[in-house]
Amino acid sequence: MSTKALFIEHLRRERLTLLRPDTPPEIVARALELLGLDDPSLDRWARSRTSLISLPHASPNVFDPRTRVGWFAGEMQRQVSGLHHVRVVLTHTNFSDLGWRPYAWWYLSDGVVRRHRLFSRNKKQKHCVISSRPPLDVVPEGMTGADLSAARAAIWGSDLAASFMLIGAVIERAAGMIPGPVATYLPLTMLVSFVRELASRASSPDEQGASPAAWCGRLIATTQGRRVAPDGTLRECSGDRAEVLDNYGNLASLALLEDAQVLGGAKMAGYWPDVEAVAARIQGTAPEGFALPCVLMVPELDLLSFAGPSPDVAAQLERQGVRYSQGLAVAEHGCFAARGRVFGAAALTGTDITEEA
Predict the structure, then answer these.
(1) 26 CB burial (10 A radius; 0-12, 13-18, 19+)
(2) How far apart are CA 334 and CA 59, in angstroms?
């Protein structure tokens, strides 16, 4: 069985940990469908010929220009058959993250940009990771439309990071970035737990020599493990206890997903050679044909020219010191990402994903 197939079976066993234990069965079914972790979605991923991997931070917001990653993935899926989008969510980031501002949720209510604060930003607490906090427990005042649906789904998350994953799943579908059952949202911690599971088999006689298990064993032995301490911060630990690895080790583990391309920009392209260096150090334990995914560059288009803020909303955002988000764009424009081929066929130039839908 391929490592992708093994990982999908791992997800089937672990997926309910993303929801509260008291979640009603009908809500469980709907939440798993939203996250692309229901059986039909996972079966589709298993059959797909290529996975598009994106790496959002756990947050209720996706601010411009990061919106273009999900938008680009949806455009590619409309133009090319056999693609499954896998959102590997970085749930171990903390509340100091100014790129995604996970300490609050910005939304539009009767033309007013409102902020629902989720966490204090004082210096004593700001380094708590998002997954260490309890889930969203209220529907913020004045929410309507997709935001209201997202908040109602989010209260069933097992922790705040899971709540944020559910928010993203609702908003990105409402935006048209997910064209049908073609995406799966999962926390990075589930991929790392799979690495540990395979690594535990490395001493088996059936796993001697070059094998995925041996490769995973070397990966956790040569990278720095980290886990969430009782105070909610990340602390270093041995690889066999790690909830996440160091940055390059985390990215190297994407090799287990097979036949994948990682969506990124100039920043990722700049540090990807360091990820390749981690993989090169343990390549001797890898089976034949086992390799890192390549980076597929997302075009740097000005998406605000297609779905930007109204003048009044733009003025409010300037006063609040935040960028336009995809949630705000949904509130103003509806299913904006499904309108036309913004990226066009030229965006596929230089990739090996060429089969037309």
Answers:
(1) exposed
(2) 20
Answer yes or no: are the C-beta atoms of 272 and 294 closer than 8 Å. Answer: no
Residue 130: is it exposed, middle or buried by C-beta count within 10 angstroms (0-12/13-18/19+)?
Answer: buried
| 354, amino acid identity | T
SS3 state of residue 300: coil
- Write the pLDDT tens digit of every residue in 99-153: 999 999 999 999 999 999 999 877 777 789 999 999 999 999 999 999 999 999 9
First-to-final CA distance of the chain: 28
Read off the amino acid at residue 124.
Answer: K
Given a contact cutoff of 8 angstroms between Cβ atoms, the answer to whether 336 and 146 are in contact is no
What is the DSSP secondary structure assignment for residue 198, as one 8-state letter? H
CA torsion angle 357 73 212 4 (round to 10)? -50
Distance CA 45, CA 55 (A): 17
Residue with tokens 């999900």: 70
* Token couple for 261: 């391309």
98 is written with which tokens? 């100014």
d(CA 88, CA 103) in angstroms, rounded, equals: 20
Alpha helices, DSSP H, located in 253-292: 266-281
Residue 195: phi and psi, rounded to 5, are -60, -45
DSSP string computed for 26-85: HHHHHHHHHHT-SHHHHHHHHH-SEEEEE-PBS-S--BTTTHHHHHHHHHHHHHBSSEEE
- Name the pairing type of β-strands 294-297 and 83-89: unpaired
pLDDT tens sequence across 169-222? 999 999 999 988 899 999 999 999 999 999 998 765 455 567 899 999 999 999
Segment (H or E) for 336: none
Q: Which long-range contacts (CB under 8 A, 24 or more apart) does 200-204 make?
A: 200/240
Q: Quote helix, strand, coil % in the chain, to nearest 5.
A: 45, 15, 40
Instruction: Pick the closest to residue 185 from 153, 152, 162 (CA basis).
Output: 162
- Confidence class of residue 260 from pLDDT cuts 50, 70 and 90? very high
